[in-house]
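Board notes, transcribed. Complex of a protein with KG4.
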Amino acid sequence: MRVLGIETSCDETGLAIYDSGAGLLAHALHSQVAVHAEYGGVVPELASRDHIRKLLPLANRVLGEAGLAKTDLDGVAFTAGPGLIGALLVGAAFGRALAWTWGVPAVAVHHMEGHLLAPMLEEDPPAFPFLALLVSGGHTLLVEVAGVGRYRVLGESLDDAVGEAFDKTAKLLGLPYPGGPELARLAEQGDPGRFRFPRPMVDRPGLDFSFSGLKTFALNTLAAEGDDDQTRADIARAFQDAVVDTLAIKCRRALEQTGLERLVVAGGVGANRALRGRLLTLMAERGGRLYHPRPEFCTDNGAMIAYAGSLRLAAGQHEPLLISARARWPLEDLPPLGA
Ligand code: KG4
Ligand code: ZN
């Protein structure tokens, strides 16, 4: 089965073609960084308009790269939520309409299920069951994964998502949007011994997270210490160390509670080298294994949507002739496959 995947939940337009037999045939991504940079963050209306401009050219590009005609496709998968509702509706309308004209089924994909299954696109993918740490700009989730659509959310952020905390802290350090990767780069020049930020909620039982206090900590430190370049780098380092440490502590706790031996880290912050290094060490100590997508499939992309959609389409799931999208959509609401 060959599926066209469409991702438009936020500020990247991602298209891809996944073949259940041959694997990923083509993928293309357009980042809207240049569109939003001057505003210091994503402007939803501009995001929607830019998706409209890019979808058709990118769809043609992946078809060309895969050497396929549109009649070679067996289905269309589009991100239907969670995300920016206008941006989602652009992808949903485009995907649903394409499927209708081509006479093939369409399937609505949950963006976080896309992230969760992205490591399956790599060689030597994880077997079920596993623990998944999903860290993106909008969500921080610890999920016990028994199979596709068999998800139990063990913990989540009560306020800012990890990526959001990275972006906000980056902004107050004067770094350009999108701040996460910029902050990570700056942290590499920081002295790890100068400041120590708190590890939020690790002293309490449970697996939920809270990251909004860290940016305030960063702001106060900046105000108290002056804002020379080295201080900024030291703050970035202290912030990143606190986030990475907190995530690792909660992962270890969740692994102990569930007895799972495989850990998946995915979502935009999954591209963070310090985080991956730390989780790699954690899993090595425990005699388990860490799995993660290649960095370009940690951040938003069409490949993960084409893949997740291909599994659901192959299991017979598809959408009625309706265009629908959901800004909010709990992961646990998804139907299990093969139940
Ligand atoms: O998954 P994603 O591409 O989009 C959402 O679903 O939100 O995640 C984007 C988030 C942004 O907050 C971005 O700053 C962050 O992931 N991010 C990073 C890194 N690369 C992306 N944060 C820290 N270190 C990175 N290397
Ligand atoms: Zn995402």
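The chain has eleven helices and ten strands. The mean pLDDT is 97.
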